[in-house]
Amino acid sequence: MDAIFTILGITGPIYLAIALGYLATRRGVFEPADMRVFGKFTLNLALPALLFNALSQRSIGEILNAQYLLAYALGSMAVLLGGLFWARKVKGHSLSYSSMMAMGMSCPNSGFVGYPIMLLTLGPVAGVALALNMVVENLLLIPLLLAVADAEGGRPGQWKQVLWQSLKNLGQNPMIWGIGAGFLFSLAGWTLPAPVGRTVDLFAQASAALSLFVIGGSLVGLKVEGLRGTVGQIVGGKLFLHPLAMFLVLSWGVTIQDPALRTAALLTGALPMLGIFTILSQRHGHGATSAAAVLVTTVVSFFTLSGLLWVLQHHPL
After folding, report:
1. Is the Cβ–Cβ distance between 113 and 215 less than 8 Å?
2. Domains of the chain, earliest start first
3. Distance CA 244, CA 263 (A)
4. Per-residue pLDDT reduced to its tens digit, 24-76
5. How many CA atoms does the CB half-sphere of 309 hold within 13 Å?
6. Cα–Cα distance for residue pair 130/264, rounded to 1 Å
7. CB 217 within 8 A of CB 41
8. What is the mean pLDDT of residues 13-19?
């Protein structure tokens, strides 16, 4: 019984904050449009500040973990390719629809959900895991899936242009700025002046609670009717196949020396899909399916993540 309360002490605050965001928006305290404003604040200021702090305050040797990057990339790519094959070859969906399903299965919500959970579970290493996750997601997974989706019906070789444009867009992503600046300060051994450093701390501390609140508020109005088959496949891929793939890679593929980072890699695979999943899917007319998948996956992940944390408590990696 004590173990159950310990797990609920980790996952409970996370999902209570999500529920509070949902209820506050459902009751009209905030409008759905307010969630977009809060989300922009989190993505453009709070999370970049968090990433900068996590990296700049550690030595370069602590944060350049090639084993973690490789393990996360291998596990996620296995699910991504498997999802594409299943949706395209087995179910006969279009390339863009297959890309949407594969993205839902393989791209986790590392920032809005993953960081708060890992912070409560693993402590300071959560920021490093978040930064490493962002590198793989923004440089490999998301550009590749967008290129696959946009290649449908285009001229030969168009996917290369799409991939290149996706990579160029990273230069406008504040989270990439936070990662780059953090690496630079770590490598050079620099520190911010005290007033500036405390300001960055204030913004970084706002990221955890606000990001969870935004997730909850964003769930208001989402529906599942008529989409159960596809949604069930995406949910199964994300909450069961992705952590299984990460477990297999960690067990028989790549060895991560730091036990906290090993746990972080496995927990990352068990997270619901990334927060901008619906936005990216809307470009090809798949917004309804992706929104339903986000709703179901977020709800079900409370039970699957709690179960995984219970297992890890009794059988650590």
Report:
1. yes
2. 2-314 (1.20.1530.20)
3. 13
4. 999 999 999 999 899 999 989 999 999 999 999 888 888 889 999 999 999 99
5. 23
6. 9
7. no
8. 94
Per-residue tokens: 229? 């088959």
Mean pLDDT of the 115-138 span: 92
d(CA 130, CA 195): 25
pLDDT the model gives residue 146: 85
Q: What is the spatial distance between Cα 130 and Cα 111, in angstroms, rounded to a whole number?
A: 7
Spell out the residues 6+ positions from residue 79 whose beta carbon is closer than 8 angstroms to its own. Answer: 102, 105, 106, 237, 241, 242, 245
Name the amino acid, one letter, at 168.
K
The string of DSSP letters for the chain reads -HHHHHHHHHHHHHHHHHHHHHHHHHTTSS-HHHHHHHHHHIIIIIHHHHHHHHHHTS-HHHH--HHHHHHHHHHHHHHHHHHHHIIIIIS---HHHHHHHHHHHH-B-IIIIIHHHHHHHHTTHHHHHHHHHHHHIIIIIHHHHHHHHHHTTS-TTHHHHHHHHHHHHGGG-HHHHHHHHHHHHHHHT----HHHHHHHHHHHHTHHHHHHHHHHHHTTT---TT-HHHHHHHHHIIIIIHHHHHHHHHHHT---S-HHHHHHHHHHHTSPBPTTHHHHHHTTT-HHHHHHHHHHHHHHHHHHHHHHHHHHHHS--
